[in-house]
Specification:
Blueprint: H1 5-21, H2 27-34, H3 40-52, E1 56-57, E2 66-67, H4 69-79, H5 87-98, H6 104-119, E3 122-127, E4 132-135, H7 144-147, H8 150-160, H9 163-170, E5 179-183, E6 195-204, E7 207-216, H10 221-239
Antiparallel strand pairs: 1-2, 3-4, 3-7, 5-6, 6-7
Helix pairs in contact: 1-3, 2-3, 5-6, 5-10, 6-10
Length: 242
């Protein structure tokens, strides 16, 4: 990827600042907080270049920049360091999920509930035989993106009743990586620019499915990705013994 070290640092800091504030990031604020070591004018030039390259966008003429889905995916795949789940957290999750190991529906229902509680996002599980489970509806309103965009929130809730659309969205991610991330227009819904989905493949005694979360595009990927992976691995481990 044709990026300088400074441009990579700018992408990293803008993604991290936007994750915290949900506000466009300006050059002066960027230099004052992160001390990149160049003038605001130089930062503005670099940010304009990154906008041309598709990593940043400018919501309003006088505002700062926000990261595009391209920048967020680059950050997650190449710059981010995942947080390590504590032993206590792993034990707490496993004890709840493991108690439902003898019934598929109960297992998926509890898995979505636990994952929603831990990530503070909406959690969804689907199977290729047309079943779906949801939990954490109220978590949608934890993010200002959804408080201020009722059209987006309405579309998310509408989506929950459409099993085939859910499966189509999950099917958009391909590759050998066990964790899939869809950001913004990658989800195939025009209104979903501020939305992202993190999910994993699950295997249920000969059936296939997906388990993951839907939240803002600026969600805490460093924490949510290992949580999605851990819960999905538990489900796969349990189902592998059926």
């Amino acid at each position: 990827m044709d990026l300088t070290e400074r441009q990579i640092l700018i992408i990293k800091t803008i993604v991290e600042e936007f994750t915290q504030t949900a506000e466009p990031v300006g050059s002066v604020a960027l230099e004052n907080k992160y001390r990149i070591g160049v003038s605001p004018a130089t930062l503005r030039n670099e940010m304009a270049t990154l906008e041309e390259k598709g990593f940043l966008s400018q919501p309003h003429a006088s505002s700062g920049r926000i990261p595009t889905p391209t920048a967020i995916k680059f950050y997650v795949n190449d710059l981010m360091k995942e947080k390590v789940l504590s032993v206590a957290e792993e034990v707490g999750v496993k004890s709840r999920v493991w108690d439902h190991r003898f019934n598929r529906d109960d297992l998926l229902r509890e898995a979505t509930k636990v994952l929603a509680e831990r990530t503070k996002n909406l959690c969804i599980a689907t199977t290729d035989e047309g079943l779906s489970f949801h939990s954490g509806y109220a978590n949608i309103f934890n993010s200002v993106e959804f408080e201020n965009r009722l059209d987006v929130t309405r579309e998310i809730f509408y989506l929950l009743d459409q099993q085939q659309r859910l499966m189509d969205i999950f099917g958009r991610a391909a590759g050998n990586n066990p964790i899939h991330i869809l950001v913004g227009d990658e989800m195939g819904v025009g209104l979903f620019e501020p939305v992202s989905c993190v999910f994993a493949d699950i295997h249920l005694g000969g059936r296939r499915g997906s388990l993951g979360i839907i939240g803002p595009s600026r969600q805490e990927y460093d924490r949510n990705i290992p949580l999605v992976r851990y819960v999905a691995n538990l489900v796969n481990q349990i189902a592998g013994e059926w």
